[in-house]
Write a structure and sequence with these properties.
Blueprint (H helix, E strand, L loop, with lengths): L10 H7 L2 H8 L15 H7 L4 H12 L6
Pfam families: DUF1858
Protein name: DUF1858 domain-containing protein
InterPro entries: CHP03980_redox-disulphide, DUF1858, ScdA-like_N_sf
Length: about 70
């Protein structure tokens, strides 16, 4: 599967490049939208700070960011 974002992409970058990711962030109970820390936190950082499964968060984000991206 082609990844639309790199491991070092920030939450802000991911949401800016793929607005569908905002829904995923909110569904996970995160308030990254508009948060000044989102421009520094990677998916790993955000999952750790919010006590979430990084694997699940990353999988959900990849599902929406990879939609329509050819392999």
């Amino acid at each position: 599967m082609k990844h639309k974002f790199s491991d070092d992409a920030t939450m802000d970058e991911i949401m800016s490049r793929s607005p569908a990711a905002i829904r995923v962030v909110l569904q996970h109970g995160m308030l990254c939208v508009g948060c000044p820390i989102a421009s520094f936190h990677t998916v790993s950082d955000a999952a750790r700070e919010h006590d979430l499964s990084e694997e699940e968060l990353r999988c959900d984000l990849l599902a929406v960011t990879n939609a329509g991206v050819p392999d």
